[in-house]
Design brief:
13 strands, 7-stranded mixed β-sheet, AAA-ATPase, elongated, about 50% helix, alpha/beta, 4-stranded antiparallel β-sheet
């Protein structure tokens, strides 16, 4: 049969079928039609060995997209782009403005799980809207239909669907626009988080960097582990080191590595433990909660209270006392135990992974209870710039792998203490095109100056120590003479 004839034949079959269907719809009473449809469906199910599950875009609430539907959409995205012939494209508003593809309506893609083959089909139902409008409004209800053989029912309904939803949600998190939250009293407000820092651009020793990256990735994949050992899925990091050594930069790099939101918690703006609790409960899963300069934010050791009492005792003027009391009541009433309680798992009820990061410039000021293992699981020291850190900065700022002046910079870095922030300042381009030699020489000058200053400081300190020792010796001699005198007068 010629192809033209074939199409004519198929066309007439379809036309006949449509005619019969129209007659059926028009002349058969609704009750009878309903029963015929019902029993024919049952007959089909009896012989048809496949199971179908429909995931609707909207369930119940017509304004709330189903979580399962969007997870499946994300899950199918990569399969759709390789298998489907008709695709829909959309821009995701994340920092990269990435293009996300999904299969168009009435497309089908296959999937495989532990050797089991299954099919996902996208579709839509169109119905006239019940809402009054001058324009014809149609409601499109999209859905995904999963088809698989009934002998695999348990595997597909159990582990397969769980993994689909999990992977789909993870993709959604990776693609979303991340946020930086800050608290004003007991409320969070947010802006889009677009810090460009990455571990690649972070200046520190490569082994140390790798260790931190591995730790973070292991944590982010350890949901089952934490569930098995019965611990809240959280991890505490303490970043310490002098100002300008990259603590904030590292936090941004952590958030970018894991795709987490950031919650910058200003403890001094939190009234009391109840407000703290509310704020922490409101944080979302996959987030980093940051408390910067923890030593300045909280009465950590009880020393501040003691100091206050002393000061109160010393304040003779009653007006001074009232002013001081007013100042104190305005301050945060959050206590160390309030914070520890929360870290220890009161918030386990929140579920989902969270990192807590504390930063301080003075680790020695912190209460040991706060930083013991289990609360702050990893202590990371960010220190002055060494040669390895400088090499990263030189690559980032000047795109340099080597230079004749590197050796001198290396020597001086071994003898001086300079922060990566100060080094970075010298490597910032000052001219167009960038004068690499000028930047390196200016850094060397700064390092030599710092070395001289350090030498002078050390000499001054030594002289002071010597003077103190001489003074002590004189006092001892004086006392000895006095004692001698006393002995001779009594004898
Ligand atoms: N280790 C580093 N790697 C790359 N850049 C760094 C590093 N340390 C500092 N910088 C640069 O110096 C600037 C200041 O660093 P950052 O704010 O991260 O330091 P910090 O330790 O958090 O300081 P502070 O204790 O004052 O908050 C950053 O903008 C960054 O560009």
């Amino acid at each position: 049969m010629e192809s033209k004839d074939l199409f004519t034949h198929v066309g007439s079959i379809i036309a006949s079928f449509m005619f019969i269907w129209a007659m059926f719809q028009q002349y058969f009473p609704y009750e009878l039609r309903h029963n015929i449809e019902k029993y024919s469906q049952r007959l089909l199910v009896f012989f048809y060995p496949y199971i179908q599950i429909t995931f609707n875009e909207f369930t119940g609430d017509r304004f709330m997209r189903s979580d399962a539907y969007s997870a499946i959409e994300n899950y199918l995205s990569s399969r759709s782009s390789t298998q489907a012939k008709r695709l829909k494209a959309d821009i995701v508003k994340n920092s990269n403005q990435s293009l996300v593809l999904s299969m168009d309506d009435h497309e089908e893609v296959s999937d495989e799980y532990e050797g089991i083959k299954l099919w996902w089909r996208s579709g839509k139902n169109i119905s006239k809207s019940q809402v009054f409008s001058f324009y014809p409004v149609t409601d499109e209800k999209r859905y995904y239909k999963l088809t698989f053989h009934k002998r695999h029912r348990d595997v597909i309904l159990g582990p397969y669907l769980t993994s689909v939803l999990k992977e789909g949600r993870a993709i959604k998190v990776r693609n979303r626009m991340r946020k930086l939250y800050t608290n004003h009293g007991s409320n969070w407000s947010h802006v889009v988080f677009e810090h460009p820092a990455t571990f690649q651009t972070l200046a520190m020793e490569p082994e140390k960097k790798k260790e931190i990256i591995d730790d973070l990735i292991t944590f982010s994949k350890a949901e089952d582990f934490y569930a098995r050992i019965g611990r809240a899925w959280k991890r505490g990091y303490l970043l310490y080191g002098p100002p300008g050594t990259g603590k904030s930069t590292m936090i941004a790099a952590m958030a970018n590595l894991l795709g987490y939101d950031l919650y910058d918690l200003e403890l001094t703006a939190v009234k009391d433990n109840t407000e703290l609790r509310k704020l922490l409960i409101e944080t979302s899963s996959k987030s980093i909660i940051v408390i910067e300069d923890i030593d300045c934010s909280l009465d950590l050791t009880g020393q501040r209270r003691k100091k206050k009492e002393e000061e109160d005792g010393n304040a003779k003027d009653p007006r001074q006392k009232i002013e001081k009391e007013e100042r104190e009541t305005k301050n945060s009433q959050v206590t160390l135990s309030g914070l520890l309680n929360f870290i220890d798992g009161l918030w386990s009820a929140c579920g989902g992974e969270r990192l807590i990061v504390f930063t301080t410039n003075y680790i020695e000021k912190l209460d040991p209870a706060l930083i013991r293992k289990g609360r702050m699981d990893k202590h990371i020291e960010l220190s002055y710039c060494n040669y390895e850190a400088f090499a990263v900065l030189a690559k980032n700022y000047l795109n340099l792998d080597s230079h004749k002046l590197f050796e001198r910079v290396g020597e001086l870095l071994g003898e001086t203490e300079i922060t990566p922030a100060d080094v970075a300042e010298h490597l910032m381009p000052k001219t167009v095109p960038t004068d690499v030699e000028f930047s390196l020489r200016s850094l060397i000058k700064e390092l030599e100056l710092a070395k001289e200053e350090a030498k002078e400081k050390a000499a001054k300190k030594e002289a002071e120590a010597e003077a103190e020792a001489v003074e002590k010796l004189l006092v001892v001699n004086e006392e000895a003479k006095e004692e001698e005198k006393e002995v001779t007068t009594t004898s």
